[in-house]
Each structure stands twice: as C-alpha cells, then as structure tokens.
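cron nightly-structures :: item 1 of 1
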Amino acid sequence: MDSKTLKALIEAGAIKNASIIADGATVHISFTTRNGDSNPATTLKGAIKTWSTIDSAAKWLRGLGIGEAKLNVAKWSPNQRGML
C-alpha cells in the first residue's frame, strides 16, 4: 500500500493496526486492515518501503496520522551493514 492509498484507508477507518518491523539493518511497516489482511507499506513503484532507523519509520507513520504501532525488533541487528 502506497502513501496515497494508506491515507484514504486511514481516513475511512479501514486500518486496524500498524507494526514497525526491524529486520537486519532495515526497517519496514506493515498494516493490518479490518478484514485481517496484512500489507507492507510500499513505494509508488510497488517496492516495499524501508527505512534505516526505527525513529524515521515512526516519524513517517506519525505523519500519516497514526500515533500507535507495535514494534517488532526480534530480528533487528542495528550494527549490521545493509546491502547497497
């Protein structure tokens, strides 16, 4: 789901919750809709949107109007180098 679609779904109350998921050196956000489907945030080109820090992902989420999210850091390795 890209930013434009997400904003529309949030305004319609169709987003049940959001999760910030840190895996290796990258962070992404997954949204759960009211019907139980889980979808990652994507770019306009369809690729999964990623961040390099948890706080930058949280700021983006807050910018959409979501103030609460689950945080999953089970596979996070902040000192791991990302692939170029």
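cron nightly-structures :: done
The two ends are 24 Å apart (CA to CA).
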